[in-house]
Design a protein that fits this description.
It is built from 12 helices and 10 strands. By secondary structure, the chain is α+β, with helices and mostly antiparallel strands. The protein folds into 2 domains: 89 residues; 232 residues, BirA Bifunctional Protein, domain 2. Strands 1, 4, 5, 6, 7, 8, 9 and 10 form an 8-stranded mixed β-sheet that branches. A two-stranded antiparallel ribbon has the order 2-3. Helix 2 runs antiparallel to helix 4 and helix 5 crosses helix 11. The longest helix is centred in the N-terminal third of the chain and has 40 residues. The structure holds 3,4-dihydroxyphenylalanine.
Length: 357
């Protein structure tokens, strides 16, 4: 190809590059000129066949044509890019004057927090967590727990019955989970069962719906010493204290023999309850050695197996630990209350060991 032809090509392509193009067509032009078989690339290939005296001039002309075209292509690509950015800026404008969207972060209810803490503490000493339904039958709630039909304890529980035959009810305690667990498995058993419980009762320290956690440990050689050790460990861990004053008071529950109620020592300092010191006592749970009749009712042989059980009021523990004095507020779903007493999901208390329900 001679120089005038090459110049023609140059003019032709400079014209082509003058009109409005997109990136693809510019790249297409680039290939047509400088690709493997491109028009300019091919012209360089003819250099070798030229006489030496012409070759130098031809090469230099060819190079400046190449540079001119290359420059134009670069300019064009730059121009397209700028245009694209500008149109994006134009169309995808962010209006920074808009007010930000409101957001609110939820809080963990103190009861959920306390249940998590309790589960975490007991799981450290080998208890697993069981659950049972809120709607129970009277057999699991009373009869299997050695509380027959005419037993005065039934009246004491102020039961919410769900039918006239008094067969279905809202469980009055978490103890029926003992029955369910033992009927569904084989000993040994080492469980806790936190959950909702119901009694027809309402004042500053009683709510018709409240929470308990049941504990049950059945094996071949479990005695009351284990019960004491377990509760002592739990109360110290829960209240985050090294020492605790604990008192076992003889009591009566149909499903345990012997039975006890446990009080912990406390005192008031600057209007706040301090657990583990002082000479005042506060009842926090019921417990005992599981009655042989209960074991028989769930097909566990009381001559081989025995153990302890306990029932703790969860809400009360939460009120004590976190200084909340009206139980009813727990269940009023007042956001202001929850914001004040609730827990930040990311703010982990020091004795929380990472277990979640
Ligand atoms: N269920 C009893 C209540 O609601 C508490 C309780 C006492 C549970 C003694 C137990 C126990 O497992 O052994 O008052």
């Amino acid at each position: 190809m001679n120089m005038p032809d090459i110049k023609k090509i140059k003019d032709e392509y400079l014209n082509k590059l003058d009109i409005d193009l997109n990136i693809e067509s510019v790249n297409q032009i680039k290939t047509e000129l400088f690709g493997k078989n491109g028009k300019i690339s091919n012209s360089f290939k003819t250099l070798g066949s030229l006489p030496t005296d012409e070759r130098k001039k031809f090469a230099s002309d060819l190079n400046s044509i190449k540079d001119e075209l290359q420059e134009k292509i670069d300019f064009k690509l730059q121009e397209i890019e700028t245009k694209e950015i500008n149109s994006k800026l134009e169309n995808e404008k962010v209006d920074v004057t808009l007010p930000e969207r409101e957001f609110s972060r939820g809080k963990i209810h103190p009861v959920s927090q306390v249940i998590d803490e309790i589960s975490s503490i007991f799981s450290e000493i080998g208890f697993s967590v069981e659950e049972g339904p809120d709607i129970e039958n009277e057999h699991n709630n009373f009869t299997a727990l050695n509380t027959p039909d005419n037993h005065p304890a039934r009246d004491m529980h102020d039961t919410f019955y769900l039918d006239n035959n008094k067969e279905l009810l809202l469980r009055t305690h978490t103890s029926p989970v003992q029955v369910r667990t033992m009927l569904n498995g084989k000993p040994p058993f080492k469980i806790i069962a936190p959950g909702r419980t119901y009694r027809s009762d309402s004042d500053q320290t009683h709510s018709p719906m409240f929470h308990q956690v049941e504990g049950l440990h059945i094996d071949k050689d479990i005695n009351m010493g284990h019960l004491k050790g377990c509760l002592n460990y739990f109360i110290k861990s829960f209240f985050e204290v090294d020492k605790i004053k604990m008192r076992f008071r003889p009591s009566h529950f149909p499903f345990t023999e012997p039975s006890a109620e446990v009080d912990i020592g406390y005192e008031m300092k600057d209007g706040k309850i301090v657990i583990g010191e002082g000479d005042k006592w506060l009842e926090i749970l019921g417990c005992g050695m599981v009655h042989p009749n209960v074991l028989k009712n769930v097909k566990v042989n009381p001559d081989i197996y025995q153990g302890y059980a306990f029932g703790i009021g969860i809400d009360r523990l939460g009120m004590l630990k976190y200084g909340i004095n009206d139980l009813r507020a727990f269940f009023e779903s007042d956001y202001r209350w929850l914001n004040h007493f609730g827990f930040d999901p990311l703010d982990v208390p020091s004795n929380y060991r990472g277990l979640s329900r």
